[in-house]
Structure formats: C-alpha cells, structure tokens
Amino acid sequence: MSFPNKKTFSRKRSIITTITLWYSFFIFIILIAVVIASFFVSRTISETAGQRELQSQAIEMVEELDEDDDELEEFESFDDGIYYAIYDSSNQVLQGSFPHFFDAGLPFKPDKISDVTNNGRTFQYYDLAIANSNQWLRAIRVKNQMGEGLRTLLTSVIIVLPLVMFFVIVGGYLILKKSFQPIKKITATAQEITNKKDYSKRIAVSDKGDELTNLAQVINTMLASIDQSFKREKQFNNDVSHELRTPVTVILSESEYGKDYADTMEDAKESFNVIHRQSQLMKKMVEQILELTRAENKTQLTMETIDFSQFVNQFLEDSKRLFNEQSIFLDTQIEEGINLVGDPILLKRLIDNLISNAVKFTKDKIRVSLSQSENNIILSIKDNGQGIAKQELEKIWHRFYRIDSSRHTKGVGLGLSLVKEIATLHQAQVRVESELGHGSDFKVIFKTNR
Ligand code: ADP
Predict the structure, then answer these.
(1) What contacts 417, CB < 8 A, 6 or more positions away?
(2) Which of 310, 315, 333, 352 has a beta carbon 3.0–4.6 Å from 369's, enabling a disulfide?
(3) What average pLDDT does this structure show over 191-215?
C-alpha cells in the first residue's frame, strides 16, 4: 500500500466524479436492499398462499370425487401447479401424477400438510381420505417454487434497476457538471488574466443567483477593484514621469548653458537660481508623492479619539505668524468639545494643505469653522481670494492638476489629492463651493457615528 499514489489518484479525480460515485454507490446499495427485501417478502406471501391453495384444492377435489364416482375417469392429475394422486388403502397408487423426485410411496399423514425434501427439492403434500371408499387423495406441490407474479416482479426489477441507476447517475452527473460550470469559467478567466496580464477581463455571470454565481460576482468586483488600482498606478507613474520631465529638462539646459556660455558671474548666478528653483520644485514634488503614496498604502491607521476643536485651534495658533506675515485676517468659529476618531498626523496634513492653499489664494481674509450636527462634523476653510471656475471644481482633486500656470503658485498639484485621500481614509467627504473673484469654501465632512 503506498499513500503517495493514493493521494495523486484522489487529487486527479474531479469533485463531480467523486460526488457522482458517492451517491451512485449508495443508491445502488439501497436499490439492491429493496430488491432483496421485496423478494423475500413476496416469497413468504406466495408460500402462505400456496399452502392454503394446496389445502383448499385438495378438499374440493375430495368432495368432487365423493359426489360422483364417474369423476374418477375425468380425474385431472395436475391443475394449477398442484399434482394429485389417488391411492388405495394399502398405499398403492391407482392413478395420478407426481412432481419429479417426489417419493410416491410415502406413508399417509391424514389431514396434515407435511414437508419432505428429496434430491434438493422440497415438496408439500396433503393426504385426505375419500369418503365412502377405501381410497385416498394425495395433493402435492413443489415448495419455494416462484409464482408467476413474483417472477414477473423480479424480471421487471432486474430490467428497471439498471435503467433507474443509469438515469440517476447520468442525470446527477449532468446537473453537477452544469452547476460547476461557473467554476470552470472562473478558472479559465483567472488563467487568461495570469497569462495576458489583462485585468479588464470579467467572468460571464448568469442570473441564476446560486452560490457559484455569487462567487463569480464577488470575484468580478475584486477584479474591477484590482483593475482600477492597476490603471491608477499606471496613470500615476505616467504623471510622475511627465511632471518630473519639465524641471529635469530645465535643469539640464540651464546647467549646460552655465557650463558652456556663462561668461560673467551674473550669468552663472542666474543659471544657478533657475536650477535651484527647479530643484526645489522637484523636492516638493517628490515629498508630496511620497506622502500621497504613504497615505494610500496606509492600511492601518493610528486611530485615536482627538479633541478636534482643540486640535484645529492649536494648528491655527501655530500658524499665527504665517497669517501675520501675509497680513491675513483670521476669523475662527470653532465649536468647543468636538471629538473625532482619526489619525492625528494625517489630519494635520489635511488641515495644513487646505490652510496653505487658502493662504496662497486669499485676498486678505480666511475663515475657519468647525461645527457638529447630529450626523456630521464639518470643517470649513473659506477664503476671499480669486475663487475657482465652475468647470475646474471637479478637476482640482485630480493628481498633478493645477489651474492655469499663470497663477504662479509654484504648486505641484498634489495637495488636494492628498486631502481627498486622507478624508477617504477617515470615511469623510470633501466639498468645495467657489465663485470666481469672491473666494472658495473647502469643506471636509466627517461622520459622527463611525
Ligand atoms: P497645489 O499643490 O499646486 O496647490 P492643489 O492640489 O492643492 O495643488 O490644488 C490644485 C489647484 O486647485 C491649484 O492649482 C489651485 O489653482 C486650485 N486651488 C486650490 N485651493 C484653492 C483656493 N483656496 N482658491 C483658489 N484656487 C485653489
């Protein structure tokens, strides 16, 4: 006996075959048991009936013989499976017939059904004295001889059984095969995706709504999400390369100019200035990309309950000098005692980015408000700057999106993407209301019952 072989064999056999074999085996056993049981039951019933028939037929025959002596000439020695014989008083056969192997010379056993076995065959006989004569009638039947009905039953069972088995096995196999079809499709699609690296493929799902179609639907949803992040990743890589190309090209051409053509210190300084500006832009971009990637990959947030009112107040207090330097009037409406569950470092980045933008774009005033309703906590940062055109309101949340470079903001277009990412991580929503020339109001809406 070797286990590895056994293991290989069972692994190769499909689930469908295993299930089909399993239930076929049991149905077969049950059917065989039913046939055997019905055979024995029918045989017992037929035996009792045969015995009763032997007795009643013998009595009837004796009565007929008694009524009319002429009956002797018309005497039928075999009728309906029963043999009859007439004996004289000294046990000599006068006429009649006997089944094969029956010993005709057996002594009389009056009024009693007796069994006798000879040469492997069992007989039943019944002796009766014929009235008004010295003669005897002996009726004999072969025991355990299958009746016509029983034989028909067994024959039909023997024909029907394989037919029933055939339909059960083939029917069950086909049903199973059809039910397992989605698994085949799942396997084929997964294989195709692996081979072609094409995550846009989906499993064709029927509307049956059974367990396997549900599984296929879940896998499709998972594939859609993988596909989406795959595409996003690709787009992000493209964007990063594209965004870095400009400063790198400027740095290269400026350094080349400085190396080959700058005659005076002034010329050289100017080139260095350009290179320095572009390098700083690149540094900022790389930092923001890193931050964004970190936020995106943050599967485990360091969540804690924060006194958000105090948190925002503290941030504004720390930024006071920035507002003063730029002569910005800060108006605050912070409701006291608002608690929020969140990641403090990320929330600080969120507030920082929104405030930096407001400082960058405002005319002279910023209003920061924090309020709580039954379901939401709303943080709003409003400025009275140049505002954003309606058609731009959607796009500003996209990575690397900057509204026309003539604004000279030196931004890299990643700040609001980061704000949105952090908000999503906190199951919060971002909104912006803005009017060109009048200012913008950025809102982050947190849910209170998270
Ligand atoms: P950046 O880092 O370049 O500021 P952001 O993602 O933060 O990029 O912003 C995207 C664009 O949205 C900016 O280029 C800017 O034009 C616009 N924007 C953001 N905040 C404001 C604001 N408070 N007022 C006007 N425009 C804004």
Answers:
(1) 292, 397, 398, 399
(2) 333
(3) 83
- Counting atoms of ligand 1 from 1, which one is nearest the CA of 397? 6
Instruction: Check whether 120 has a pLDDT greater than 80.
Output: yes
With cut-offs at 50, 70 and 90, classify the pLDDT of residue 200. Answer: confident
> What is residue 382's DSSP assignment?
E
Topology adopted by domain 68-145 = Beta-Lactamase (3.30.450)
Angle between helices 181-196 and 148-179 (to 10 degrees): 30
Asked if the model's pLDDT at residue 87 lies above 50, the reply is yes
Q: What pLDDT does residue 5 have?
A: 46
Domain topology for 181-297: Helix Hairpins (1.10.287)
Of all residues in the chain, the percent with pLDDT exceeding 90 is 40
CATH annotation of 298-447: 3.30.565.10
The single-letter code of the amino acid at 284 is: K
Position 15 scores a pLDDT of 84
CB 135 within 8 A of CB 66: no
Please tell me the residue having the least CA distance from ligand 1 atom 21: 357
Write down the domain spans for the chain: 68-145, 181-297, 298-447
- Half-sphere exposure of residue 266, counting CA atoms within 13 Å on the CB side? 0
pTM of the model: 0.58
Ligand 1 neighbours by CB, cut-off 6 Å: 357-358, 361, 383, 385-386, 388, 396, 401-403, 407, 409, 411-417, 440
Q: Which residues pair with 329 in a beta bridge?
A: 365
